[in-house]
Amino acid sequence: MARVRVDGFTLSLDGFGAGPDQDIDHPLGVGGTQLHQWLVPTRTFQRSLFGNDSGTTGIDDEFAARGFQNVGAWILGRNMFGPIRGDWPDSEWKGWWGDNPPYHAPVFVLTHYARPDVAMEGGTTFHFVTGGIHEALERARAAAAGKDVRIGGGANTIRQYLREGLIDTLHVAISPVLLGRGEALFTGLDLQALGYECETFVASEKATHVVLRRRGTDVAPPTTSAS
Questions:
Q1: pLDDT of residue 221
Q2: Which positions fall inside the Bacterial bifunctional deaminase-reductase C-terminal domain (predicted)?
Q3: Which pLDDT belongs to residue 195?
Q4: pLDDT of 41
Q5: Average pLDDT, integer, range 56-80
Q6: Percentage of the chain with pLDDT > 70?
Q7: Phi, then psi, of 79 in degrees rounded to 5
Q8: Is 67:171 a contact under the CB 8 Å cutoff?
Q9: Vertex 86, ends 151 and 106: CA angle to 5°?
Q10: How far is it, in rounded angstroms, from Cα 137 to Cα 121?
Q11: In what order do the strands lie in the sheet with 148-153?
Q12: Phi first, then psi: what are they for 207, rounded to 5°?
């Protein structure tokens, strides 16, 4: 059975998934790049972004790699696509990741403003959904054709899907940094009441990896030697 997943969403020790004041110069907010010291050096990240195998292996790479296994479609909040607010001023902006984004699957972007699809290299096509999280999930499931749907973020998008009990597994990587302000993930959520429990808890040198699973989910997540 296909799952709805969050993989590799990184939090600071004080619970923020991005720093404050996100803009084109600070896509992760001020100080937000500190969060991903566990991810950027990994072989998976280096391969997906730069096409080389020179990255690190080990626990962090295993979690990064499993985040791409069996993913048939993605859902992103608008901030994950670009810094533009309000109506789309033009069609020039095609996402943070350049001509060949790392998704390699259909991507459904939540927005209040319609826009034509954007087809990119490597099999990524961005579709812009104005009907909310349920419409995006319905379309993503259809596009995934039996594979999993990965919710890529940001924090507000993940929080909406958690509140509705629509996420089956949630992997967060807790980075040993403090941001002080930013985009909090769990504000206003009672995860225990929503049916989530801790399934995996393992630390590397650069992050603590926690996997939460919604009770009643009958499909286990991919295994790694860290589990």
A1: 46
A2: 9-200
A3: 96
A4: 92
A5: 95
A6: 96
A7: -60, -25
A8: yes
A9: 30
A10: 23
A11: 118-119, 125-129, 106-110, 71-77, 148-153, 4-11, 169-174, 208-214, 196-203
A12: -165, 160
Name the range with the highest mean pLDDT among 24-28, 159-163, 180-184. Answer: 159-163
pLDDT tens profile 97-151: 888 898 999 999 999 999 999 999 999 999 999 999 999 999 999 999 999 999 9
> How far is residue 169's CA from residue 3's CA, in Å, rounded to a whole number?
8
- Grade residue 21 by pLDDT with cuts at 50, 70 and 90: confident
Q: For every residue of the chain, which 3-state class applies, written as one string?
A: CCCEEEEEEEECCCCECCCCCCECCECCCCCHHHHHHCCCCEHHHHHHHHCCCCCECCHHHHHHHHCCCCEEEEEEEHHHCCCCCCCCCCCCCCCCCCCCCCCCCEEEEECCCCCCCEECHHHCEEEEECCCHHHHHHHHHHHHCCCEEEEEECHHHHHHHHHCCCCCEEEEEECCCCCCCCCECCCCCCCCCCCEEEEEEEECCCCEEEEEEECCCCCCCCCCCCC
Residue ranges of the domains in the chain? 1-8+70-87+94-173
The region, left, alpha or beta by phi > 0 then psi within -120 to 50, assigned to residue 184 is beta
- Which pair of tokens denotes residue 211? 């996997």
- Say which CATH topology domain 1-8+70-87+94-173 has: Dihydrofolate Reductase, subunit A (3.40.430)
